[in-house]
């Protein structure tokens, strides 16, 4: 990967290649600022690739009266759909209801109901859930997504996989997003606008040097020193470590590390809708159609002790998710159904909440002006990453008076320059141009690369022209694109982040891919 320009004194140096760091880099570069970004591992390697893959308002946050957060997220859904129709699409969510379901009462809504309707004893009346969904439909100015409706589960296909006790459900709209690709595409757009993106580059020191920052990094190119007018700490789970151990600043602000674990099972149902399951412990989980042949179930909320990189789905969390889902599905879900697990650590702003579930999902931006300015980014949701970036640029605007204004709303990410409902038409055009592609292969490429799928395939006239076949439709041509344009350096970057083909590939195939990429890097260091 060739470096973009590196000004002697950059405007911003961003630590962290997750969605917040890459979103801020894109927005800032588009406003004319010179931007450097360093990521210690791969883009989206931590929290940003371990989400539940949803652009959603956060229906359960209404229970906590977090109306601003929900409204902002709801407004963003359709803004983001238009900008990235290849990696995000509408999805309908089925919320089964039973009058005897009880919920944790220690929420603002629960406490209010306890005072006004003590005989409910933790139950949520159907009218209250429907009222919440009415707010959900109307708070965000919905135009593209269909409204909520009530389902008779005895006559709707969504009722088939569920236990017979569930006779009624509400169906509402939210959106799916390919989280890792979202991060990479923001980084690509940032680079196209002049930012320099450095992966495998750890910041080992950041010190104020008069009116600017002196930043020392260590990576594939050895130790380097950069200078920037402002430091942006978007370290995610490492944000507190950056403050204390990299910038050596004494601060009372910090994060609460909350582990969210997911399981992927064989396909549990045949329709394309998602389930929203409510638990008696106040938690909710989703069961989502995943990669055509699988079902994604998650997530947990557990306070995480230890290093963020060590987050794993524990047996306890796996069994919790299996038991939770089995309280809804007619056929119990067991450990034999599980084909993969993943876990990530959410860096929630430490607001003193007494449980991981109750901790705020809102973001907090803090500017330290005791010398050269430092912006610390705490928390955030993938749905509101673009708004977080805009808010971050608002906070730093006083330091860059010549900076231009907001611009990212509905501006396509790479490959997203086609109508929000145009995936089928684009896939048909790709199939017509490359007749050797299977239906699955063509659809996968469009969902990953959008209009850039043609650039990935080039002038190939046969499948053989795409080079070595690594399995599961992954070809040498695609791997070359990922290394040359998307900072992929090893097999895990490709099969678990840029794609999810690791679900379909054997260990031997993944090892062969890793060897191929290592040889390619040795021959062409620019691929780094």
Tally of helical runs = 14
As a percent range, the share of strand residues is 15-25%
In whole angstroms, the N-to-C terminal distance is 6 Å
Radius of gyration: 23 Å
Poorly predicted runs of 5 or more residues = 1-6
Helix content: 25-40%
Number of strands: 20
The SS-based structural class is alpha+beta
Shape: globular
Largest sheet: 10 strands, mixed
Query: What does the average pLDDT come to?
Result: 92
Summarize the structure.
The protein has 528 residues and is an alpha+beta fold. It has helices at 19-30, 67-83, 108-116, 126-138, 179-192, 239-246, 315-326, 385-396, 423-433, 439-449, 453-457, 476-485, 491-498, 507-523, and strands spanning 10-15, 35-38, 54-55, 88-97, 149-152, 168-177, 196-198, 201-209, 212-219, 222-233, 255-266, 274-278, 284-290, 294-298, 302-303, 338-349, 364-368, 374-378, 469-471, 474-475.
Feature tags:
528 residues; alpha+beta; 10-stranded mixed beta sheet; 8-stranded mixed beta sheet; disordered N terminus
Overview of this structure, please?
The chain has helices at 19-30, 67-83, 108-116, 126-138, 179-192, 239-246, 315-326, 385-396, 423-433, 439-449, 453-457, 476-485, 491-498, 507-523, and strands spanning 10-15, 35-38, 54-55, 88-97, 149-152, 168-177, 196-198, 201-209, 212-219, 222-233, 255-266, 274-278, 284-290, 294-298, 302-303, 338-349, 364-368, 374-378, 469-471, 474-475. Residues 1-6 have low confidence and may be disordered. The radius of gyration is 23 Å and the shape is globular. Helices cover 30% and strands 24% of the residues. It contains 14 helices and 20 strands. It is of the alpha+beta class and 528 residues long. A hairpin with a 5-residue loop joins β12 (274-278) and β13 (284-290).
């Amino acid at each position: 990967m060739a470096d973009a320009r590196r000004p002697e004194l950059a405007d911003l140096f961003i630590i962290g290649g997750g969605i917040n760091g890459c979103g801020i880099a894109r927005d800032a570069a588009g406003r004319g600022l010179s931007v450097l970004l360093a990521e210690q591992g791969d883009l989206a390697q931590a929290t940003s690739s371990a989400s539940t893959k949803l652009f959603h308002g956060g229906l359960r946050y209404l229970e906590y009266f977090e109306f601003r957060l929900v409204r902002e997220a709801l407004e963003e859904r359709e803004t983001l759909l238009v900008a990235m129709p290849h990696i995000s699409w509408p999805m309908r969510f089925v919320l089964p209801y039973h009058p005897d379901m009880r919920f944790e009462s220690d929420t603002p809504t629960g406490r209010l109901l306890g005072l006004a309707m003590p005989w409910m004893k933790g139950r949520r009346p159907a009218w209250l859930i429907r009222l919440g969904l009415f707010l959900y439909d109307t708070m965000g100015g919905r135009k593209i997504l269909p409204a909520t409706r009530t389902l008779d589960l005895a006559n709707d296909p969504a009722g088939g996989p569920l236990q017979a006790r569930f006779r009624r459900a509400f169906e509402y709209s939210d959106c799916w997003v390919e989280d890792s690709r979202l991060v990479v595409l923001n980084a690509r757009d940032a680079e196209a606008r002049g930012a320099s993106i450095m992966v495998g580059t750890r910041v080992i020191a950041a010190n104020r040097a008069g009116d600017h920052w002196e930043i020392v990094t260590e990576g594939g190119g050895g130790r380097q020193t950069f200078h920037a007018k402002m430091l942006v700490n978007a370290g995610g789970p490492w944000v507190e470590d950056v403050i204390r151990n990299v910038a050596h600043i004494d601060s009372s602000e910090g994060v609460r590390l909350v582990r969210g674990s997911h399981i992927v099972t064989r396909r549990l149902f045949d329709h394309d809708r998602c389930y929203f399951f409510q638990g008696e412990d106040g938690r909710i989980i989703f069961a989502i159609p995943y990669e055509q042949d699988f079902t994604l179930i998650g997530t947990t909320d557990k306070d995480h002790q230890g290093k963020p990189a060590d987050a794993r789905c524990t047996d306890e969390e796996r069994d919790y998710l299996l038991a939770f889902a089995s309280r809804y599905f007619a056929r119990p879900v067991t450990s034999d159904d599980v084909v993969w697990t993943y876990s990530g650590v959410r860096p929630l702003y430490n607001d003193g909440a007494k449980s991981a579930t109750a901790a705020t999902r809102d973001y907090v931006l803090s500017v330290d002006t005791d010398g050269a300015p430092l912006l610390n980014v705490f928390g955030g949701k993938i749905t509101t990453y673009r708004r977080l970036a805009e808010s971050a640029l608002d906070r730093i605007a006083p330091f860059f008076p010549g900076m231009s204004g907001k611009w990212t709303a509905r501006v396509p990410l790479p490959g997203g320059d086609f109508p929000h409902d145009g995936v089928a038409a684009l896939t048909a055009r790709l199939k017509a141009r490359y007749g050797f592609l299977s239906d699955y292969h063509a659809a996968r490429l469009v969902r990953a690369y959008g209009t850039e799928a043609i650039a990935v395939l080039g002038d190939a006239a046969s499948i053989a022209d795409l080079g070595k076949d690594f399995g599961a439709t992954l070809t040498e041509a695609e791997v070359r694109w990922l290394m040359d344009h998307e900072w992929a350096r090893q097999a895990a970057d490709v099969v678990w982040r840029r794609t999810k083909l690791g679900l379909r590939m054997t260990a031997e195939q993944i090892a062969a891919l890793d060897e191929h990429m290592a040889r390619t890097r040795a021959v062409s260091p620019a691929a780094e």
